Amino acid sequence: MRRVVITGQGTVNALGMNVRETLSAFKEARLGIGALKFPDVERLSIRIGAQMTGYNPQDHFTARELAVYDRFTQYAILAAKEAMLQSGLKITEELAPRCGAIVGSAAGGLQTQDVAYREVFEDRKNAVHPLTVPRLMVSAAASHLSTIHNLRGPSYAPSSACASSNHAIGQAFHLIRGGSCTAMLAGGAESPLCFGGIKAWEALRVLSPDACRPFSANRNGLVQGEGSAIFVLEDREHARARGADILAEVAGFAMNGDAHDIVKPSRQGAAGAMAAALADARLDPDDIGYINAHGTGTRANDSIECAAIRDVFGPHAETMAVTSTKSMHGHLMGATGAVELLAVIMAMRDGIIAPTIGYQQHDPDCALDVVPNAARNGRVTAALSNAFAFGGLNAVLALKAV
Amino acid sequence: MNTVGASNHQTIESRVVDIIARQAMVGAQQLGVKSEIAALGLDSLGLVEVIFALEQAFDIQIPFNANDRRDDQSALKTVGSVVEMIIALLAQKNGSQDQ
Question: What does CATH list as the number for B6-94?
Answer without folding.
Answer: 1.10.1200.10
